[in-house]
Each structure stands twice: as C-alpha cells, then as structure tokens.
Design a protein that fits this description.
The chain is α/β, with parallel strands linked by helices. It has six helices and 13 strands. Helix 1 runs parallel beside helix 2. The chain binds fe (ii) ion (FE2) (2 copies).
Length: about 260
C-alpha cells in the first residue's frame, strides 16, 4: 500500500522567498498533478495540517478546488493555522471529519495499513496539544485493533527538533503519546508536518518522519529565532507499506514550473 503525504499548504499566505513571490495555490495545484502522475499505485493521500493561513471558508474552498482533482482519496487533519468548524463545513462530504463532535481525529479502516489521524490543534496557539481526552481516544482506537499495522499522522512533531523557534512551542502531551506508542507495536510509523523540513527520528519504538511543505520551506536555523522561508523545493513523502518489509518512506520533490 502507498500513502502519499503532503503538508503545510498555507493557502492564503503569500511569502517572498529570495525575492520571489510564492503562489501557494499554484504550488498546491502542482502537488496534485505530481501525485496524480505517480499513478494508480497510490492508495491514499494524507494532508497533515496547515491547509490554510487564517482558517477561513474561502481559503478552504481554494484547498478543496485543488484537492478535488486528486485521483486517490484524501484524508485531512488540522494544524495550528486551521479552524475546525470551517474545515468541516467546506469538506462536509468527508464523513471521517464528522466521526467525533469535538476533535478532528479518526481512523480509516478500508486500507491494508490502518490510518489514524490525530488532532493537535489548539485555537489561537502556534504549538499543539494532545490533551487527556484525545489521548484516551487514541488508547481506545489502538487497543481495538492491536494486530493491524497502523500509521499515525499528526501536524505537530512529538519530539524536539533541535530548531529553537519550533521547540519553543513543542507539542504538549508528547510524553504521554510516547507511552501509548511504546505499548502498541502495530504502530509502523508516525507522519508529521509543521517544521517545513524533512526529518526522521527513532522515537518510542517507532519511526517519526516530518514531511517538507508542499508550498515553502524554513531554513535549518539551529541558533536563530524567527526565520524567513528559504529557497528549497516543495516536496511530498511517499510512505510504502509492504507486509514483511514494513514502512519505507521516500522523499519526492514536486517539479515546479516558472510561476
Ligand atoms: Fe506550517
Ligand atoms: Fe504548523
């Protein structure tokens, strides 16, 4: 099974990178074209948060206009720049978004690899949180299917990245999440966004990967505070799960046309 991950679309934001204005809508269109060109082997697409900038309905409508052209089914989660009620309203036909009345978390059961989306969104905050209610839900979901290989995905990485500007707003509840993951061997991997860079780490008995943004990247600022976007290419990740092999994650750059 192949799951393609795109993240941090930031529709509505117009950054300038190395003097060049970036059209995040056009970059999303190119990401969709790229995924469709990968072919029928792609079973699902996960979009790991920061779909928009302000979380407005018009921004979500722009996201929807692009994602509706995807050939495989796509599953959305929220990041710090999202807004739950507007996301639900514009994607009203995405039934999984309505599985829980409060949080945008869910499990997708129809693929060989079980997909479990988590909700780390905290209104008005840049950082994320897995509160006791969200952790309890995850414990129950994982306990229900202990033998099904599972991919978790959430916006905020649960580990310290080493980049101070991100670690200042680390995800609360990460330690508790780690204890849950350790207790459930079926977790094949955890896919995140938020950092706008590629990263991977061995964490609590599994592997956590961070996918670069499909729109723009941040620099590897190990001693900086606030940093501007850097001229590195948009990318997605292709997570390939095979029985007996496990999860192999590929970084795939999204070809860009002159915009
Ligand atoms: Fe982001
Ligand atoms: Fe974010």
């Amino acid at each position: 099974m192949i799951v393609v991950q795109i993240t941090d679309l930031h529709i509505g934001y117009a950054p300038t990178v190395a003097g060049v204005p970036i059209d995040t809508g056009a970059r999303l269109d190119l990401a969709v074209e790229h995924i469709n060109r990968l072919g029928a082997a792609v079973d699902a697409v996960i979009v790991t948060g920061d779909l928009t900038t302000e979380g407005s309905r018009s921004e979500y409508a722009r996201v929807r206009a692009s994602l509706s052209r995807l050939t495989p089914p796509c599953y959305l989660i929220a990041g710090n720049h999202d807004e739950r009620s507007n996301l639900r309203a514009v994607f009203a036909d995405h039934a999984y978004l309505h599985a829980d009345r409060t949080f945008l978390h869910y499990s997708i059961e129809e693929h060989p690899l079980r997909l479990v989306g988590l909700d780390t969104h905290v209104p008005g905050e840049e950082g994320g949180e897995l509160c006791e209610g969200r952790l309890r839900w995850l414990r129950e979901v994982l306990a229900a299917e202990p033998r099904r290989p599972t991919l978790l995905f959430l916006h905020h990485p649960p580990f310290r990245s080493g980049i101070p500007s991100f670690d200042a707003t680390a995800c609360r509840g990460a330690e508790e999440l780690g204890a849950i993951v350790r207790a459930h061997e079926q977790v094949q991997g955890i896919a995140c966004g938020h950092i706008h860079r590629a990263m991977h780490v061995r964490w609590c008995g599994t592997v956590v990967t961070v996918c670069p943004s499909a729109a723009f990247q941040y620099p590897l600022a190990l001693d900086g505070e606030h940093v501007d976007p850097v001229a590195e290419p948009p990318a997605c990740m292709l997570h390939m799960w095979t029985p007996g092999v496990g999860l192999v994650s590929h970084l795939s750059y999204i070809p860009q046309r002159a915009l």
